[in-house]
Design a protein that fits this description.
Layout: H1 7-23, H2 27-37, H3 46-52, H4 55-80, H5 83-87, E1 103-106, E2 112-117, E3 123-128, E4 132-137, E5 142-148, E6 154-160, E7 167-172, E8 177-181, E9 187-192, E10 199-205, E11 218-223, E12 227-232, E13 238-243, E14 249-254, E15 260-265, E16 269-274, E17 281-287, E18 293-298, H6 304-307, E19 325-330, E20 334-339, E21 344-349, E22 355-360, E23 366-371, E24 376-380, E25 386-391, E26 399-404, E27 408-409, E28 413-414, E29 437-438, E30 442-447, E31 451-456
Antiparallel strand pairs: 1-31, 2-3, 3-4, 4-5, 6-7, 7-8, 8-9, 10-11, 11-12, 12-13, 14-15, 15-16, 16-17, 18-19, 19-20, 20-21, 22-23, 23-24, 24-25, 26-30, 27-28, 27-29, 30-31
Helix pairs in contact: 1-2, 1-3
């Protein structure tokens, strides 16, 4: 049989075995092996024996612990599985990310802070502390372009805008928001100044908000200057400034119909804003986290049937009613689920470090979170938020961002909403039939290790 170890590896193993035998009062066996492999005093003295005597046990323990951890994770998945869920393992509505990633993309020279998928094409943008935005092809795993323009760290990116005329928005510690045209080789078409401190989050607002100048042309930004701003991307004008937070606003998320915003940050509050009125107002202000809040997400209508029982509702709210439930992640290591009345429905405990990003599965059944503990966790909303899957060591260092590719509306183009929202709200009092949406089972994560990872079915 051909040896599996190199000569050096074999020598290390032999020394470890001999040192282990000697340390455990088995001198005859140790001497027999030394004689067999002709290992003399000149290459294995007392100091060498001391160096190697615990190595075998440490290696054995680490391997066993790793296997036990993996076994526990797999057993947890099996315990949570039902016959119907096992039969739907390839069903996009039941898909959850699993290791290994399809691609590990490297080119950034510093921490990746944000990622965003193009609504139609296989492009993904990432922004970094290295001041650049990079455009990748997530299918091929190739770098397509590096965009330079910001003079400080890029903190967030988002695709959106009028259907057929999608733009890429980015925001930075340089106090600006920039708009880039993917159809024109990502040319910088507009820079939006106005914030007085770092701009931490930027999101396109879906069409539907009252007073919107045109479909899909509004953008919302959150800043360390404690404000939210709403912009018209066609003119570059700041339409509204929303004040209320008393600390750094870390994240903002618009509702699928563009009527509401959820924001959160260092004042540890979660605020639900109605932006369909001329003077945006906070409908609810929620407190509960015990440290700075890092992220927020609005639940899709598909989640209502799982979240309604937690809120004590006999039947789910209508799909046309948006911003009924929200999720927030915090540096207190927890995730909280809220309803529009300001009630905390659940606190999800499991992460061992800051929770940096949360998103709802397009099917509505799961919540997925990313943390500085280097894990992704999948929480089953149909089982009272039970953690049913943990992907450990997703990155070599802290995970900073997490995004799900938006679904594709068949025969109608993309559905361009946050978190892959698949429902269609009611507008102007008329109920629209839900579109036939193809869920794209693709998740991207970025981290302090400067790597972008793509998980795909």
């Amino acid at each position: 049989m051909a040896p599996m170890l190199s000569p050096r590896q074999a020598e290390e193993l032999h020394k470890s075995i001999i040192a282990y035998l000697a340390a455990n009062n088995l001198p005859n066996a140790a001497n027999a092996l030394r004689t067999e492999i002709n290992l003399g005093e000149e290459s294995f003295d007392a100091a060498t024996a001391k160096k190697y005597e615990t190595l075998l046990e440490k290696k054995w323990t680490s391997i066993i612990m790793d296997l036990e951890s993996r076994n526990e994770s797999l057993q947890s998945e099996l315990d949570s599985a039902t016959p119907s869920s096992l039969s739907k393992r390839n069903d996009p509505a039941s898909w959850l990310p699993k290791a290994p990633p399809r691609h590990i993309l490297e080119s950034h020279r510093d921490t990746i802070n944000c990622v965003a998928f193009h609504p139609i094409f296989s492009s993904i943008a990432s922004g970094s502390d290295d001041y650049t935005i990079k455009i990748w092809d997530w299918e091929l795993g190739e770098l397509e372009k590096t965009i330079k323009g910001h003079t400080r760290a890029v903190l967030d990116v988002d695709y959106g805008g009028p259907r057929g005329g999608y733009l890429l928005a980015s925001c930075s510690s340089d106090l600006t928001i920039k708009l880039w045209d993917p159809a024109d080789d990502y040319k910088n078409i507009r820079t939006l100044p106005g914030h007085d401190h770092s701009v931490s989050a930027v999101r396109f607002i879906p069409s539907g908000a009252a007073g919107a100048p045109s479909s899909g042309t509004l953008l919302v930004s959150a800043s360390r200057d404690r404000s939210l701003r709403i912009w018209d991307v066609t003119t570059g004008y700041c339409m509204r400034t929303i004040n209320g937070h008393s600390g750094w606003v870390r994240d903002v998320c618009p509702s699928p119909d563009g009527r509401f915003l959820v924001s959160t940050g260092d004042d540890m509050s979660v605020r639900l804003w109605d932006i369909s009125v001329s003077e945006p107002e906070a409908k609810q202000i929620m407190f509960g986290h015990e440290h700075f809040n890092e992220c927020c997400a609005i639940a899709p209508a598909a989640s209502y049937k799982y979240l309604a029982p937690l809120a004590g509702l006999k039947k789910p709210p209508p799909a046309s009613s948006t911003a009924e439930f929200m999720a927030t992640g915090s540096r207190d290591k927890t995730i909280r689920l809220w309803d529009a009345r300001g009630t905390c429905l659940l606190t999800l405990v499991g992460h061992d470090n800051w929770v940096r990003s949360v998103l709802f599965h397009p099917s509505g059944k799961y919540l997925i979170s990313a943390s500085d503990d280097k894990t992704l966790r999948c929480w089953d909303l149909s089982q009272d938020g039970k953690c049913v899957k943990v992907l450990a060591d997703v990155h070599e260092r802290f995970i900073t961002c997490l995004r799900w590719a938006p679904g594709i509306v068949k025969d109608s183009g993309p559905i361009d909403t946050e978190n892959g929202e698949v429902g269609t709200p009611k507008r102007n009092g008329a109920e629209r039939a839900p579109p036939d949406v193809q869920i794209r089972c693709i998740i991207a994560t970025g981290g302090v290790d400067q790597k972008l990872r793509i998980f795909a079915n």
